[in-house]
Amino acid sequence: VCLTCCSRDVMVKIDQICHKNSVKFFTGDVFGYHGYMFADLGEHEFVEEKTKVTKVSPGVEDGPDTKKAKLDSSETTMVKKRVVFCQLKEALAVDWSGEKAKAALKRTAPDYFLLQ
Asked: Is residue 67 part of a domain?
């Protein structure tokens, strides 16, 4: 479900319905130079390709780069990952006065507070 130009109450209500029924939910809007996008994908599983890191065997090379790990681009492994997304209601209800929030505050764009 994709929403735009909706009130906060409508977005929260539809996200709750989508989350309950395992339906992916996206919402966003733009106000001049400022905008937002939110995604609730519920439990999302995906596969990520990782390049294998191999170390150079000792004595093969001389110099300062001998100890550095090198990427072997010919060998890759597939790693299955799982992410659990929060609901819109939870994202909007963050308590910014706590200790954990102080660290997150530095990474949060000022636009978040404008949109609140």
From this structure: no
Write out pLDDT tens, residues 9-41: 999 999 999 999 999 999 999 988 888 999 999
Whether 30 is covered by a domain: the verdict is yes
Between CA 74 and CA 54 the distance in angstroms is 11
CA 56-57-59 angle, 5° bins: 115
Q: Which of 39, 17, 42 is nearest to 27 (CA)?
A: 39
Which residues touch 43 (CB under 8 Å, ≥6 apart)?
Answer: 22, 82, 83, 84, 85
CATH number of domain containing 109? 3.40.50.12550
Cβ pair 18, 40 in contact under 8 A = yes
Any alpha helices (H) in 1-116, and if so which ranges?
8-20, 88-92, 99-107, 110-115
Residue 60 lies in a domain: no
Could you tell me if residue 45 is inside a domain?
Answer: yes
Q: What pTM was computed for the model?
A: 0.68
